[in-house]
Amino acid sequence: QAETGINTPAETWQIDFTARMAGMDERQRLENIDIFGAAAFFGDGYLVGKSGNQFYVTKGTGYVAGLRTTLAENLNITVTTRPVKVWLDVCWTGTLTSVWGVQSRITVADNLADYVQNGVQHYVFAVAGIDENGNITDLRPKGTLNEQQASDALRKHEQSRNHPDATTSAKGFTQLSSATDSTSEEQAATPKAVKIAMDNAAARLAKDRNGSDIPDKPLFVQNIGLGN
Fold it and tell me: Where is the signal peptide (predicted)?
């Protein structure tokens, strides 16, 4: 600089990619929300269970607010007051030179909302509710957003009372019946009813065989009084 008289500020040749990288991370998080919704869990991942008096969270994988998190081992939790909820708390964190990743923890509380701590955004989701008697209600959405919507639609349909009955010409719900004297075309026979009918048919004599299918003919003749 002294020899050339040229002063080059650092901002003209040093590039800070922090904002760009943060934007890429946020885009990926939002794209995950498009696929998995507010939260999504797979199998028994983060399922709250109970063994004796000990509550625990089951190992597995899930998404909260687009952040993928995995619990490597079952985690015991302390529940001192009830009713209460069990929350999964996740955040995306790292330093300028470190590998970034999802940090997660389990919190037992009545209510919890997304929050910022030390400049880091935390996202929370209730995975279970525990009532005053210790009964657990699973609150985890299962699978992708499409799978969740399909499950919700099926659940609502199952709970409704507007189920059309199936007929020989229309699709619908079919009620099972073990009756063997019914002429209904809106009920389906159970294996029990089919077995009764088959046993009855197997025990009958075929009229076109003229008695040739009688196992013990002498005894038959005696029983009908023709032996004398």
Answer: none
Q: Between 85 and 176, where is the model more confident?
A: 85
Task: Compute and round to an integer the Cα radius of gyration of the chain.
Answer: 35
What pLDDT digit, counting tens, does each position of 115-135 carry?
999 999 999 999 999 999 999
Average pLDDT, the chain: 85
Assign 3-state DSSP to the chain and report helix, strand, coil percentages, each to 5: 25, 30, 45
Cα gap 198→179, rounded to integer Å: 14
Strands 115-117 and 60-64: unpaired
Among candidate residues 123, 147, 143, the one with its CA nearest the CA of residue 30 = 123
The residue-averaged pLDDT of 103-114 equals 97
Task: Measure the CA–CA gap between 128 and 125, rounded to whole angstroms.
Answer: 9
Q: Determine the Cα–Cα distance for residues 158 and 146; give it in Å rounded to an integer.
A: 18
User: CA 67, 70, 73 angle in degrees (round to 5)?
Assistant: 160
Query: DSSP letter at 165?
Result: B
**Three-state DSSP class for residue 11:** helix
Identify the band that residue 187 occupies on the pLDDT scale cut at 50, 70 and 90: confident
Instruction: Name the residue with higher pLDDT: 228 or 143.
Output: 143
Question: What does the block give as tokens for 200?
Answer: 């009855």
